[in-house]
Amino acid sequence: MSSQDIPEENLPVAQAEGADLDKHGDNPFADPGLPPHEHRIQDIDERAAKRSERTVAFLFTLSMLATIGFIASYVALPVDKSVYIWPLGHISALNFALGTTLGVALFCIGAGAVHWARTLMSDEEIADERHPIEASPEVKAKVLADFKQGAKESAIGRRKLIRNTMFGALTLVPLSGVVLLRDLGPLPEDKLRHTLWAKGKLLVNQNTNEPLRPEDVAVGSLTFAKPEGLEEHDHDFQTQIAKAALMIVRIAPEDIKDKQELEWSHEGIVAYSKICTHVGCPISLYEQQTHHVLCPCHQSTFDLTDGARVIFGPAGHALPQLRIGVNEEGYLEALGDFEEPVGPAFWERG
């Protein structure tokens, strides 16, 4: 329908003529204004205001208790425990407790804030005219004044019970996120500083799974060894072998340049960590004539006749040496653990 089909008396201009035009000038649409303000019961009855204050404080306090429950559940409940919850069925007790407590903590903060705003903060509507975007000194002064007025109307200074419980709830809730950081992985503590090697542990050939005797290691040969008792079917085999893997090389004692290396060897048999000190790759290439070992990843090269020092490549320090000897039965054994952490740069080793 076009404007030509509408009776003239129904058009806005026609309706406004004679009445609204005189009152509102050239604007035919009247400003409806704001409805009259109606006072709430809390505005006129201090007892009702106190009840609302206690309700808000109760919600904030309940949030604090729920946050404490979240942390307690995370610490106390085992991961593999399940419970029957109707109608969900069997579910993880830990997940259910964490979800419930965290949900209650967040809901109570939100519900408390909403109840506070609806019952105790000022609800009087104020019309504010549009103003330029630039922040003039007058605007800054007005914003500051509005902020002070809002703080005053929120009664946060006068309602100390609400203020203190709110601060308590908002302070405790972030602890839930801090606790969840525990799931990033197990704490390393000093585990990366130690391996399975200890005094009396036999050196076991990783290929034959048999203990090594000195006569089993020929001059110029390379043998890989593992600690006695570590088996491939163990659940933590990969974790432990990544720290305890050994290279066994026999060098003529007169060719060994480093005094400590000679003292920690047995008849020229030296045991060094197989883990490269650059980024932790397994070293597997051996030059028989020079007694150099080469990491295949980035070509770091170590001289096994001179304390396994780095002679080429990006590795930052020498390979750790394991002190070895022979027990009463004639088998090669460790005389302790590595004196320093094995693997890449120190800060990555815990």
From TrEMBL:
Residues 238-333 form the Rieske domain. It holds the Pfam family Rieske. Signal peptide: none annotated. Residues 1-38 are annotated as: Disordered. It comes from the Bacteria. GO terms for molecular function: 2 iron, 2 sulfur cluster binding; metal ion binding; monooxygenase activity; oxidoreductase activity, acting on paired donors, with incorporation or reduction of molecular oxygen. The chain crosses the membrane at residues 56-76, 96-117, 161-181. Keywords: 2Fe-2S, Cell membrane, Disulfide bond, Electron transport, Iron, Iron-sulfur, Membrane, Metal-binding, Oxidoreductase, Respiratory chain, Transmembrane, Transmembrane helix, Transport. Coiled coil: none annotated. InterPro entries: QcrA_N (IPR045603), Rieske_2Fe-2S (IPR017941), Rieske_2Fe-2S_sf (IPR036922), Rieske_Fe-S_prot (IPR014349). It is a multi-pass membrane protein. Belongs to the Rieske iron-sulfur protein family. The cytochrome bc1 complex is composed of a cytochrome b (QcrB), the Rieske iron-sulfur protein (QcrA) and a diheme cytochrome c (QcrC) subunit. This is Cytochrome bc1 complex Rieske iron-sulfur subunit. It comes from Streptomyces indicus.
